[in-house]
Amino acid sequence: MEPTEGQILYGGIDLRTLGLARYRSLVAAVMQDDTLFAGSLADNISLFDPDTTPLKVEAVARQAQIHEEIVAMPMG
Question: Distance between CA 58 and CA 8 in Å, rounded?
Fold first, then answer.
């Protein structure tokens, strides 16, 4: 990520030194209006990707810190 001038710092670290993968792992977006599509939570997490696996869905749910809430649901 190259700023037009100056630096972009995250925790005092210049983002140019992080690399794209590390930078992306530090950034998230939370939308104000949630939308769930018709289907299961796993479908919504995987965005209906037919090649996803239950392990990938669980990993994403853990990253989003919603896994515990999901397993606590009656059909979790």
Answer: 33
- In eight-state DSSP terms, residue 70 is H
Cβ-contact 28, 40 below 8 angstroms: no
Tens of pLDDT, residue by residue over 44-74, are: 888 888 889 999 999 999 998 889 999 998 8
SS3 14: strand
**Domain spans, the chain:** 1-30, 31-76
The 3-state DSSP class for residue 9 equals strand
Single-letter amino acid code for the residue at 52: T
pTM of model > 0.70? no
Structure letter (DSSP) for residue 17: G
**Cβ pair 11, 26 in contact under 8 A:** no
